[in-house]
């Protein structure tokens, strides 16, 4: 478990940045992310509370989620835009709240182009995006002029609403990025063809906005420094565009990495911390205005090292401020161990956004729900016993103790964490160590009495002086009804990962949910030996085909051949559907592609017949098949552990896996624990 020095200081992070007409008090920007509050009833009042809390938490500058300059540019039909006086009044609620605590905030102007989930979408050319069912309409010359006017109007209205500046979104494959690259710009007029023609639109927009808003208004340009798609920009083109944007009036250039349709992960937890800051450094050397870096920076020592190395002038973090609104203050006050760290899971933020839900955070369910989940001191302190120190029990215990309840937390194991102690061993999920470090510190801060190595009984609790009991005992792996399931070849995922049982070179994994994929990740990496001369970042870039020399267009190397597997692994599921179809919307493809690269064979529509010395006998789409394997790992679901409730006479509550165990769900467990603690 990480143990950060309690007296760590971050001199580069806390060096102010003078823009001439405005000063940023430190080098941390809260980057743009869609909240889902922008479109709900009363959403701007909720946004005001959300952003105010982050401004109070010490961040130097906030950039809002993307706001469209017009209806056709909105990320979906009915999504937020800045085009009317009513929009100005709504946004003024947000800017006034941020300014009331001394914060600064910019509005991001985002035109989705061919990414807009709408039948009215427009783009430079009528080329459908692979991630969107709608085909865009190619803009005419007059319609392009209208788009420019709408960008300028959005900036002027943002200024009127009290924003300190705007960020022009020109990366991640959105509208302006689509004009810049030959991949999406097939025009043969003055807005297409040569690179000079293709960059006219972003330059014109920045120039026109600067003219309209004056000199004392922050203008950030989010430049795609690494497209990671075929037909993307070259490094030379990107430098040229950056210099032209400076001349047009931008104060700050932000770093964009990868289009949404790219085949390279850029922000998921499998991406090493700060994996792309080297890109920012190479372009920063060619530019004169302050440059921002981003992507997978989630702790202050990471930010400090990036700034100290000269990779960037500013650090942009988005999801870390969902996880902990006081991130900056805690770093500044030498309380690093108290930071609730973003683990890069995407489960409650990006996955929610792409499902049309409100953004939140797995490790902090209050995010975007600050007006609903209110943690206040209790008027009636209770003595509460909590059984189980997994995610649900930890969330309840720390929140209840913070409110003033007297909490005793029991666990039969020797350490806190429950299923997180399994998850943190899976390659690409080491960030769970940070969550456990955070909860351990919270238990200490709020005086929770932690009793480990003790399987508390119902009788013991009934004879105690507790007022209530919270049951967070979690789950046990379900044993499927397969003939021969007790064969020595068979192990559960707990046997494999937590108990580190040895397995052979040929393995069948029964069950292709999240746990099945985790097991495969564990198995394919167990015997992999990374070349000693390669760092974690270099290994990642090599594995995913990123051009570290920036010599290739788009920064993308040719598709790599499948690696020689260290094991032969079969990932099997009963459903006759795409294996892993129910994984996270924004990360599932990463897991599937990564395992296919490692040679994992995925099979759906499997009927498990029996297990014997010969291996696993199946019927797959009507055909009998025997897979000769050394081991079978069972990942076939879970069953709740809640029997203790039957014998309790004290009032009790079930949370987490103990209440519902169809699939392990830390997001639901932490949310349940937190919400219950606010109500008792």
From TrEMBL:
This is 2,4-dienoyl-CoA reductase. One of its GO terms (molecular function) is metal ion binding. One of its GO terms (biological process) is fatty acid beta-oxidation, unsaturated, even number, reductase/isomerase pathway. It comes from the Bacteria. Keywords: Flavoprotein, FMN, Iron, Iron-sulfur, Metal-binding, Oxidoreductase. It comes from Marinomonas balearica. SUPFAM superfamilies: FAD/NAD(P)-binding domain, FMN-linked oxidoreductases, Nucleotide-binding domain. Residues 383-645 form the FAD/NAD(P)-binding domain.
């Amino acid at each position: 478990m990480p143990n950060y020095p309690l007296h760590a200081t971050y001199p580069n992070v806390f060096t102010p940045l003078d823009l001439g007409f405005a000063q940023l008090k430190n080098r941390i920007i809260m980057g743009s992310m869609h909240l889902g509050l922008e479109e709900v009833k009363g959403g701007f009042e909720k946004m005001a509370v959300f952003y105010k809390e982050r401004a109070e938490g010490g961040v130097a500058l906030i950039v809002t989620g993307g706001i469209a300059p017009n209806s056709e540019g909105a990320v979906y039909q009915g999504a937020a835009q800045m085009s009317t006086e009513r929009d100005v009044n709504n946004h003024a609620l947000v800017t006034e709240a941020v300014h009331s605590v001394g914060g600064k905030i910019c509005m991001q102007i985002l035109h989705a182009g061919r990414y807009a989930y709408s039948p009215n979408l427009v783009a430079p050319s009528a080329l459908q995006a692979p991630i969107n069912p709608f085909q865009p309409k190619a803009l005419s010359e007059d319609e392009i002029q209208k788009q420019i006017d709408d960008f300028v109007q959005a900036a002027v209205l943002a200024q009127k609403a009290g924003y300190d500046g705007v960020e022009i979104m020109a990366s991640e494959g959105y509208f302006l990025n689509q004009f810049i690259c030959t991949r999406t710009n097939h025009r043969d007029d003055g807005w297409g063809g040569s690179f000079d023609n293709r960059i006219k639109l972003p330059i014109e927009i920045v120039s026109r906005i600067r003219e309209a808003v004056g000199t004392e208004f922050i203008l950030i340009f989010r430049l795609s420094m690494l497209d990671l798609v075929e037909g993307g920009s070259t490094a030379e083109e990107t430098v040229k565009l950056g210099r032209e944007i400076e001349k047009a009036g931008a104060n700050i250039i932000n770093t964009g990495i990868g289009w949404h349709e790219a085949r390279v992960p850029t922000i998921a937890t499998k991406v090493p911390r700060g994996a792309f800051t080297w890109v920012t450094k190479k372009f920063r050397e060619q530019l004169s205005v302050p440059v921002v870096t981003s992507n997978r920076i989630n702790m202050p020592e990471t930010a400090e090292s990036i700034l100290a190395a000269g990779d960037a002038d500013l650090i942009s973090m988005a999801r870390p401020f969902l996880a902990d609104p006081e991130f900056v203050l805690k770093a500044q006050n030498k309380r690093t161990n108290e930071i609730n760290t973003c683990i890069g899971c995407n489960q409650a933020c990006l996955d929610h956004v792409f499902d049309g839900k409100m953004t939140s955070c797995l490790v902090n369910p209050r995010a975007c729900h600050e007006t609903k989940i209110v943690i206040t001191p209790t008027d009636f302190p209770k003595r509460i016993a909590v059984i189980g120190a997994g995610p649900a029990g930890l969330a309840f215990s720390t929140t209840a103790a913070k409110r003033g309840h007297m909490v005793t937390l029991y666990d039969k194991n020797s350490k806190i964490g429950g299923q997180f102690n399994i998850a943190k061993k899976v390659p690409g999920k080491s960030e769970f160590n940070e969550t456990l470090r955070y909860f351990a510190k919270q238990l200490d801060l709020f005086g929770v009495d932690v009793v480990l190595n003790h399987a508390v009984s119902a009788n013991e609790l009934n004879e105690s002086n507790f007022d209530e009991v919270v049951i967070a005992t979690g789950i046990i792996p379900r044993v499927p009804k397969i003939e021969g399931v007790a064969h020595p070849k068979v192990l559960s995922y707990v046997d494999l990962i937590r108990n580190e049982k040895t397995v052979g070179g040929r393995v069948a994994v029964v069950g292709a949910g999240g746990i099945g994929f985790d097991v495969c990740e564990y198995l394919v990496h167990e015997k992999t030996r990374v070349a000693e001369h390669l760092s974690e970042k270099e290994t990642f870039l090599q594995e995913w085909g990123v051009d570290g020399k920036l010599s290739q267009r788009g920064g993308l190397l040719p598709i790599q051949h499948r690696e020689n597997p260290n094991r032969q692994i079969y990932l099997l599921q009963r459903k006759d559907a795409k294996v892993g179809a129910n994984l996270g919307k924004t990360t599932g493809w990463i897991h599937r592609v990564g395992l296919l690269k490692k040679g994992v064979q995925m099979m759906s529509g499997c009927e498990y017949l029996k297990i014997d010395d010969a291996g696993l006998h199946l019927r797959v789409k009507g055909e009998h098949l025997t897979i000769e394997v050394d081991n079978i790992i069972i990942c076939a679901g879970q069953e709740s552990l809640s029997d203790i409730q039957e014998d309790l006479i004290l009032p009790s509550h079930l949370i987490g896996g103990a209440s519902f165990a169809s699939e392990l769900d830390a997001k639901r467990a932490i949310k349940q624990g937190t919400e219950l603690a606010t109500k008792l």
